[in-house]
Write a structure and sequence with these properties.
By secondary structure, this protein is an alpha+beta fold. The chain has three helices and six strands. The protein has a single domain, classed as YaeB-like fold, CATH 3.30.2310. 36% of the residues lie in helices and 26% in strands. The two termini are 20 Å apart.
Length: 138
Amino acid sequence: MTKQQVANVFEGSDVVSIVTATDGRDFVEEFLEALEPRERAKIYAYFEWLRDGHRIKSPENMRHIKDVHDPTGCGAQVHELKLHQNGGRRLYVVKFENRWYATHGVLRKPPDKKVRTEALKAFSIFNDVSIDETDEEE
């Protein structure tokens, strides 16, 4: 069985990271590879804003999924980074202790009732990583 991994997006900064699933699958990399170069550049611009501590204020670009709470009670939050081209692509990120963890993306805007499922998937990927990171530090 493969252990999950957390990889920093920017060298020298751990503010924005990409998380792999427990089976070793990198959903974020798969998502990024499916994007057109211009869309990929927009996602990296979002990552830069988050790294530099800037809020992405417009709900047209990012929204907090408020009705889904961290099942572990640790206070993590799921946010959705939005691209509006090609059917409305979405990248899900978890904010925890002033850090951002990209977990997975979808190539088409999900219907409102499916957003909850995507947020829970983000928590699932993230929370497994939190446990493994603790194990590695010992």
